[in-house]
Amino acid sequence: MKSLIGTLALIPLLAADTKVDLSSEQVGRPPATFEPMVGTWVVTQDGPDKVIMVDGRPWVASKDNPTRLLVQSARRLYGTSNEELMDNAKQFAYFPVAVLKSVDTFSNGTISVKFKTIAGDADRASGILFNVKPNGDWLAVRYNDTENNVALWEFHNGIRRNIRFSDRAKKFMLDRNAWHDLKLAVDGAAIKTWLDGDVALEYALGSAPGAGRGGAAPNPDLLPENNPVLRPPVAGKIGLWAKTDSTSYFKDYVVSPK
After folding, report:
1. What pLDDT score was predicted for residue 180?
2. What is the CATH number of domain 15-257?
3. What's the rounded Cα separation, in Å, for the pair 37 and 198?
4. Cα(41)–Cα(52) distance, integer angstroms
5. Global model pTM greater than 0.70
6. Which of 12-16, 37-41, 104-108, 250-254 has the lowest mean pLDDT?
7. DSSP 84
8. Are 98 and 240 in contact (CB under 8 A)?
9. So where are the chain's domains?
10. Which residues pair with 242 in a beta bridge?
11. String of b and e for 121-130 (b: at least 16 CB within 10 Å)?
12. If you compute the radius of gyration of the chain from its CA atoms, what whole number of angstroms results?
């Protein structure tokens, strides 16, 4: 018995999955499960399912005035209207994001979501937001339906920069009328993303960036020593991500801590 107890004591308790349940959400209202930080996020009906829609249609009219929503959301999430977040507001406004309320911080494990591309003239992008810092910096993996690729982006000092694209020779030609699976795994510094079960990209946080265009030195903000969001470990809030006038549906958001 002592041996069994000792063995059991060494088995770590598994953290429970967080599965976002939209069944109690009100259609036509902003989601209660996510905090919309930028953009227009509402619950809508898709056949038998309630889903979250990022509605890109109002984006053009509202893109230059994000500060009010950012202030209100920052106060709810962090208890303050973070000044650095406000300074970044203009650039931040190009990227509609909604933060999951039920997870305070995510470091290791997986995040998955189903998405469907609906519309967008400038962009048709759907993604997973993670490593969100109190100043508004973040990482995101996304699928772009106009470029047919997957990418890892970072946002720091008010500017978004690409970290890694999926193989340019491999195009992900997805059916816009169907639901698709985007999955992110974080294991320490290792980041891995799948699209409909196919590995789309891999990256190690803390890696030295490649050269810029024409062999130029990389932007200083892409050096991990200058940019906390690019240094392991991942530790921050998570959520949903889109770009400019993208209209997308999301459902089955699942967080599985390691």
Report:
1. 98
2. 2.60.120.560
3. 30
4. 7
5. yes
6. 12-16
7. H
8. yes
9. 15-257
10. 126
11. eebbbbbbbb
12. 19
